[in-house]
Amino acid sequence: MPFQLHLKTGALLEFPHTAVMGIINVSPNSFFNPHHSIEAALKTAEHMVAAGVDILDIGGEATNPNINIAVDAPSLQEELDRVLPVLTAIRRRFEVLISVDTSQPMLMCEAAKLGADMINDQRALSAPGALAVVAEYKLPVCLMHFFKNTRIPGSSTRAELLHHIQCELRERVVACEAAGIKKERIILDPGFGGGNYGKNATENFYLLKELSQFIDMGFPVLVGLSHKSMLGEAVGGAEPSQRLYATIAADTLAAFAGVHILRGHDVRAMKEAIAVVQRVQLSRC
After folding, report:
1. Which of 36, 134, 192, 269 has its CA 20 to 30 A from that of 167?
2. What is the pLDDT of residues 196-206, one digit of tens each?
3. Is 192 exposed, middle or buried (0-12, 13-18, 19+ CB in 10 A)?
């Protein structure tokens, strides 16, 4: 789906089709393909850039179902130490858009100073000070849906779940605009996943089926489905490393639904899936 990204420099970047955001995990607790050194992160970045990645997303906090975020979340200093050296190294070596996946306002601020182009926040700028930082640096931001209060998966109808997610995303948009963040810099993410995301596999697949409901909200939509537990459940309990085919199937469905950014680990496969979707869409003309 074509869309525009308004950068902090004032430049307007045009994407003629669904963009690919490549994941650079620098948390040792990441459920899939963590990077334990700057060199490992640079090698992955090099492969992704060569494969045509549009955005690199660097994150230093794991939030997968195996993590108790109340206990296992890194300290601010740990997250700074994980992310900033990798950000600096990638910025020096590659001409590519860089997103930082964080909920920490201080990291957002330091990342912006070091050349980050975008913030991807799994807590939708809910931390005190986060809205002000993003507004000050005029950064594009992805607001991922999260449950403010712990939710038991399956505790509401799927239609109620969809409505609830949309309402909470709208609330965060209102908060952003009130803080001075322009609408054209906001991206939405419905928040696929189990565990800390408060959704079971059936609910996640329902949201995948109903992606058009989020696209109709009037903002670019980002989705992250890569190797997630919902896909493992769908294909007989496969481990994360065995979920590539399921990931590309889900990404293809999302691209066909019209999402604007796909976030994942397998850049070449994602780019090829998007190319096929483009050909199908062009055949309608």
Report:
1. 134
2. 677 899 999 99
3. buried
- Identify the CA nearest to 207 among candidates 170, 164, 236, 168: 164
pTM of the predicted model, to two decimals? 0.94
Asked whether the CA dihedral 238, 241, 243, 245 is positive or negative, the reply is negative
Nearest-10 Cα torsion for 79, 81, 87, 88: 160
- DSSP for 24-77, written as a single string: EE--TT-SS----SHHHHHHHHHHHHHTT-SEEEEE----STT--HHHHPPPHH
- Rounded CA-CA distance 168/263 in Å is 22
What is the DSSP code (8-state) at residue 115? T
Q: Which domains does the chain have, with CATH numbers?
A: 3-282 (3.20.20.20)
Torsions phi, psi for 89 (to 5 deg): -65, -45
Whether 284 has a pLDDT exceeding 80, the answer reads: no
Rounded Cα distance, 56 and 77, in Å? 22
Dist CA 109 CA 79 (whole Å): 13
Specify which residues 59 forms β-bridges with.
25, 101
pLDDT of 111 strictly over 90: yes
- Residue 228 designated active-site: yes
pLDDT of 13 strictly over 70? yes
Q: Residue 184 has which token pair?
A: 């054209």
Active-site option among 172, 228, 243, 271: 228
Whether the per-residue pLDDT at 55 is higher than 60: the answer is yes
Among this protein's residues, is 158 annotated catalytic? no
Alpha carbons within 13 angstroms on the beta-carbon side of residue 246 total: 20
pLDDT band at 30 (very low <50, low <70, confident <90, very high): low
Amino acid sitting at position 59: G
